[in-house]
Amino acid sequence: MSDYTELKRLAQAALPRDDSPHLPCTVAFDRAASPDVVLALIAEVERLAALFECSQGDMRQAQKIMDRDMKDAERYRWIAENADVDCRGHEMGREYGSLDECVDAAIAKDAGQ
Description:
Elements: H1 5-14, H2 27-32, H3 35-81, H4 99-112
Helix pairs in contact: 3-4
């Protein structure tokens, strides 16, 4: 990332001011804002946009992992609190495809009571 402090100062100085009857002098800004500088700014914006998009994908993946882990934690808490309930009494693969499905069904049944 480059330092654009001087370019920013020149751009601000080149803006018209409501409190001044004089037109701003844009010569210094026009010299500073060369095609090379503008292209560098565009390249930096594109690089940052790509980095932002990449981080958004990472955040979506992290959210999926957290959602899965929260469901696992919910199952564990339920089992810990209801240790006397045997959810394995159901036939796996027939009634429920996995222990998770069995526990989810037991949680739902327990919540309905």
